[in-house]
């Protein structure tokens, strides 16, 4: 049974209110609820953390070591400059998938670069809230394949 930590960064607690033309009308609670159903369907467990504070996210990543099998993270704006979150992911060495609701590559220039992506196994962008589901399915599949090796 896979255990995945889902982390959502700054301003994602405002989903449903924040720029719905970009991020949609679903709330973070809607997205997490759907993710929990997907993980139950896949026979796994999901733990969710959301914070607007970098240190809380780093602590959550550190706490995942030895507890969870993988991490799904939407680092929000931290994507573009948080070397501390990047280093935390590298430190725990858990497979991590980066998710973004919007297509960051079709937006402002500063959103085109992720300092996080270099330490992830993949990145899903621009698929709306469905990106979380695809990330979870990909993570569980990857974990199952690794167990067989």
From TrEMBL:
This is 3-dehydroquinate dehydratase. GO terms for molecular function: 3-dehydroquinate dehydratase activity. Substrate binds at residues 74, 80, 87, 101-102, 111. The lineage of its organism: Bacteria, Bacillati, Bacillota, Bacilli, Bacillales. Homododecamer. Gene3D superfamilies: Dehydroquinase, class II (3.40.50.9100). The active site is at 23 (proton acceptor), 100 (proton donor). The record marks 18 as: Transition state stabilizer. InterPro entries: DHquinase_II (IPR001874), DHquinase_II_CS (IPR018509), DHquinase_II_sf (IPR036441). Transmembrane segments: none annotated. Pathway: Metabolic intermediate biosynthesis; chorismate biosynthesis; chorismate from D-erythrose 4-phosphate and phosphoenolpyruvate: step 3/7. It catalyses: 3-dehydroquinate = 3-dehydroshikimate + H2O. PROSITE patterns: DEHYDROQUINASE_II (PS01029).
């Amino acid at each position: 049974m896979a255990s995945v930590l889902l982390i959502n960064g700054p301003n994602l607690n405002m989903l449903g209110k924040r720029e719905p033309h970009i991020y949609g009308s679903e709330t973070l609670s809607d997205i997490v609820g759907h993710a929990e159903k997907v993980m139950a369907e896949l026979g796994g467990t999901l733990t969710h953390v959301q914070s607007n504070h970098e240190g809380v996210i780093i602590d959550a990543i550190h706490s995942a070591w030895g507890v969870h099998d993988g991490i799904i993270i939407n680092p929000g704006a931290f994507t573009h400059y948080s070397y501390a979150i990047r280093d935390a992911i590298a430190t725990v060495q858990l497979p991590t998938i980066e998710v973004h609701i919007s297509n960051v590559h079709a937006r402002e220039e500063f959103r085109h670069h992720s300092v996080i992506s270099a330490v992830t196994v993949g990145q899903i962008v621009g698929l709306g809230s469905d990106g979380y589901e695809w990330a979870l399915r990909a993570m569980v599949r990857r974990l199952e394949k690794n167990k067989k090796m």
